[in-house]
Amino acid sequence: SRLHATDVTSSSFHLLWPQLLSQDTGYYSLEYGPRADPAGRRTQQLSGALTSLVLSDLTPQTTYEVLLVPESNVHYFPPQSISVTTLPEEISPVQVLISESGPRSFHVSWAPVLDSVASYQVLYGPLPGNSVQVLQVDGRHNSTLVEHLAPNTTYLVTVTAIYRSGKERSLSAKACTQEGEHKE
Questions:
Q1: Residues 100, 79 within the same domain
Q2: Where is the domain boundary, 35, 50, 85?
Q3: Where are the alpha helices (DSSP H) in 7-152?
Q4: How far is Cα 86 from Cα 43, in angstroms, rounded to an integer?
Q5: Radius of gyration of the chain (CA)
Q6: pTM of structure
């Protein structure tokens, strides 16, 4: 029955608090800002009917001080405060490289490799078309071989990083297989 935070990400969190006021009995004054930067504090007035709010556009890996002051015209309620630390930034794969392209296979690699990634999914399918196949790759690896492809075909390859937090980030690239061997 106190002010608390849920759904913490690298740039936002969700504040929840007990219903102390109503639309008619007052309003809340919300102050928040990075602990290390008292000058960067922001203040918002909130309707007395609210019991939750999402704070967004925050800085990753930063501890925020949050102060909620119930401004009641009926009762005195003590201010409630909490500290919330945002998660480290989750960086998407910034490059996907296709190499060693042959008639029936190519090699896909990506960067950077991050500790916060649990696994990667490599999706690939011919263009145009909607048949897609998926390879699961352990988060410690940054490359895989895609095989059993059709020669002389353009494939769309999407690498999705699946973070331990449950978030996903994707990056796509196109790959072309070589023409098949010509029989003499």
A1: no
A2: 85
A3: none
A4: 19
A5: 25
A6: 0.55
